[in-house]
Design goal:
Elements (H helix, E strand, L loop, with lengths): L1 E3 L2 E3 L13 H8 L3 H15 L4 E11 L28 H13 L4 E6 L9 H13 L5 E5 L5 H10 L3 E3 L6 H7 L5 H14 L2 E3 L2 E3 L5 H13 L6 E6 L16 H14 L4 E4 L8 H9 L4 E3 L12 H11 L2 E2 L18
Parallel strand pairs: 3-4, 3-11, 3-12, 4-5, 5-6, 6-7, 8-9, 9-10, 10-11
Antiparallel strand pairs: 1-2
């Protein structure tokens, strides 16, 4: 480390970092003066990604509510009175038009979520989801699913059906995880991520800010993400949407500058990952979102609804992209295309 006007700067250009960062490495970068941190993150971003592109992803909750788990942030847990009715698994016929509309609106990734602890090979509902994935993957968008815990057999079936990425978040640090969820462990999350990696699907894995964690917990979460081999393909950074009826309903909002710092640090240490500014954009000003994009966020959830919570409107987002001179990313421009179609044909 070198000291410049009392601030510690890493000795080497950060883009040349090859080894796994320690918590201290992450802290040193996270605590740089804000503009220095943002500038370094922007340099990494420009070296690795088209500078003005934004990936647009649409979410659909294909099986809502009634979940057995006690994740204290989640409106879909059956353990809390959140006013959400548990729904049935949506049929392929119900899902396809939503996916088609998402494509029409400019989304290049379609993410289907189910409020399950996990899936079981051979289960009728899992077979139904596989059928849906086979149909949705014909539309030429990236297909992501988040269905809870998996083992190897289920992961391989999802890959064969056409899933390009599996979302399974670690959500917070290993130390804080037990304060937020008691019905499964941090290690259970890592085991599922291992199954996804062994099956050769891209891993979409990130977390939530605003769960009562410290800034060190957030960096510990990043440290774990940086230890993945291969590195995650995408990293969703959610800000808690305090859902009525959940234990975290009264949580204070996340500080925007802390969010920008975390995104910039993630961009620097995970240069090849999409950083997705995920839940919580309705609580952020346009200026705060612009700072997140400058700091390296190059993906958002697009469409009025997340899974159960609100998201900015399509027109509002298109207007923001236009004001900032950003353009939607093309599909499969950085992922293997399962249909071998050139991105320009999609
Ligand atoms: N059941 C699956 C699981 O737990 O992985 C998939 C669905 S779960 C709703 C997906 C992710 O959404 C969670 O891991 C969490 O990061 C995020 N999430 C859920 N509720 C949230 C909330 N109220 N605010 C912000 N993010 C939330
Ligand atoms: C992720 O990290 N965020 C998305 C997606 N992966 C599945 C979900 C956000 C959920 C926000 C709360 C809700 O809609 O209930
Ligand atoms: Fe269930 Fe996932 Fe919500 Fe946890 S986050 S309660 S596992 S749907």
């Amino acid at each position: 480390m070198v000291l410049v006007f009392g601030w510690q700067f890493p000795e080497r250009p950060i883009t040349s970092r090859l080894e796994m960062p320690t918590l201290k490495d992450l802290e040193d970068v996270y605590q740089l003066p804000l503009f220095e941190l943002m500038q370094q993150a922007r340099e990494v971003h420009r070296a690795k990604w088209p500078a003005q592109e934004m990936q647009l992803c649409t979410l659909l909750s294909v099986k809502t509510g009634g979940c057995s788990e006690d994740c204290s942030y989640c409106a879909q847990s059956a353990r809390y009175q959140t006013g959400l009715d548990a729904g049935k698994l949506m049929s392929t016929e119900e899902i396809l038009p939503v996916a088609e509309q998402a494509k029409q609106n400019g989304s290049t990734r379609f993410c289907m979520g189910a409020a399950w602890k996990g899936v079981r090979d051979g289960d009728k509902r899992f077979e139904q989801v596989l059928d849906t994935i086979r149909e949705v993957s014909k539309l030429g968008m990236e297909v992501c699913v988040t269905l809870g815990q998996l083992s190897d057999a289920e992961a391989e079936k999802l890959r064969d059906a056409g899933v390009t990425a599996y979302n399974h978040n670690i959500d917070t640090s290993p130390e804080h995880y037990g304060n937020i969820v008691t019905t499964h462990t941090f290690q259970d999350r890592l085991n599922t991520i291992g199954a996804v990696q062994r099956a050769g699907m891209a891993v979409c894995c990130g977390g939530i800010l605003g769960l009562g964690e410290s800034e060190t917990d957030r960096l510990r979460m990043l440290e774990v993400l940086c230890s993945f081999d291969p590195a995650p393909e995408s990293v969703p950074i959610n800000c808690l949407m305090p859902m009525p009826g959940t234990p975290l309903e009264e949580s204070p909002p996340v500080d925007s500058f802390e969010l920008v710092r975390l995104i910039a640090t993630a961009r620097i240490f995970l240069p090849g990952a999409k950083i997705r500014l995920s839940a919580g954009r309705t609580q952020l000003s346009r200026e705060a979102q612009a700072m997140c994009f400058f700091a390296g966020a190059n993906s958002v959830f697009y469409g009025e609804k997340l899974l159960t919570a609100a998201n900015p409107g399509v027109n509002e987002d298109l207007e923001l992209l236009e004001i900032l001179g950003l353009t939607p990313q093309k599909p499969f421009s950085d992922l293997p295309n399962p249909h071998n179609e050139p991105a320009s044909a999609l």
